[in-house]
């Protein structure tokens, strides 16, 4: 018996939707914590920004991942798929969606996770290296974030004394994800209100 056909969609992130805000916040936090466990530190990258197109990938209505892309530079800022949905062509769907919106072939923005490296190799994607200035900005952003987390960390540290403990680090990254996504959403809603376009969807 054949399994039923599943429907995959890549829907634009809606800053007026409480559901979209919560969904993107949770997945962005998941990405940051996974990368912390992999690399030992916070990694750069924006889930949402004024210069990015952000989409939520769904299978049969269930959110399974997200992407953010700079269409002017033909580069993918972030692409994340929940662990239980990897290996099912979700990232390929996101890239196909972006191909319709961007006339130039997309590139994955470095630095890449192991999954990102495998995706680039499998789909023959270019890798967009950061300029020295961007790399320095990323290092400085990580340094400032770690310093802020250090000031809030109250646990006894047994590892690198220059970094917060893993427990506080994870909690701080989840809070950071919420601040980033909600801050962007509030700004977008305020702009729409000024233009008379804002209509809450929830």
Describe this structure in words.
- With 202 residues, this protein is an alpha/beta fold.
- The chain has a single domain, classed as Gcn5-related N-acetyltransferase (GNAT) (Aminopeptidase).
- It is built from five helices and six strands.
- A six-stranded mixed sheet has the order 1-2-3-4-5-6, sandwiched between helices.
- It is globular, with a radius of gyration of 18 Å.
- The N and C termini lie far apart (40 Å).
- The mean pLDDT is 84.
Shape: globular
Number of strands: 6
Could you give the order of strands across the largest sheet? 1-2-3-4-5-6
On the 0-100 scale, what is the average pLDDT? Answer: 84
- Rounded radius of gyration (Å): 18 Å
* Category by helix and strand content: alpha/beta
Tally of individual domains: 1
H-E string: EHEEEHEHEHH
CATH class equals Alpha Beta
Tell me the name of the CATH homologous superfamily: Gcn5-related N-acetyltransferase (GNAT)
Report the CATH architecture: 3-Layer(aba) Sandwich
Major beta sheet summary: 6 strands, mixed
- CATH-defined fold name: Aminopeptidase
Tally of DSSP helical segments: 5
Helix percentage range:
40-55%
Strand content: 15-25%
The low-pLDDT segments are none
Separation of the first and last Cα atoms: 40 Å
């Amino acid at each position: 018996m054949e399994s039923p056909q599943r429907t995959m969609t890549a829907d634009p992130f809606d800053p007026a939707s409480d559901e979209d805000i919560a969904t993107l916040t949770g997945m962005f936090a998941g990405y940051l914590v996974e990368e912390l466990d992999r690399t030992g530190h916070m990694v750069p990258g924006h889930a949402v920004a004024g210069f990015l197109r952000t989409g939520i990938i769904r299978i049969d209505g269930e959110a399974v991942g997200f992407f953010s892309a700079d269409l002017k530079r033909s580069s993918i800022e972030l692409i994340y798929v929940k662990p239980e949905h990897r290996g099912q062509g979700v990232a390929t769907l996101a890239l196909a969606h972006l191909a319709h919106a961007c006339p130039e072939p997309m590139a994955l923005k470095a630095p890449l996770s192991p999954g990102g490296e495998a995706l680039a190799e499998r789909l023959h994607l270019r890798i967009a290296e950061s300029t020295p200035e961007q790399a320095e900005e990323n290092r400085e952003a990580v340094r400032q974030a770690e310093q802020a987390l250090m000031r809030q960390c109250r646990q006894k540290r047994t590892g690198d004394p220059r970094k917060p403990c893993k427990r506080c680090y994870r909690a701080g990254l989840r809070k950071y994800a919420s601040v980033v996504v909600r801050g962007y959403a509030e700004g977008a809603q305020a702009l729409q209100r000024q233009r008379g376009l804002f209509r809450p969807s929830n």
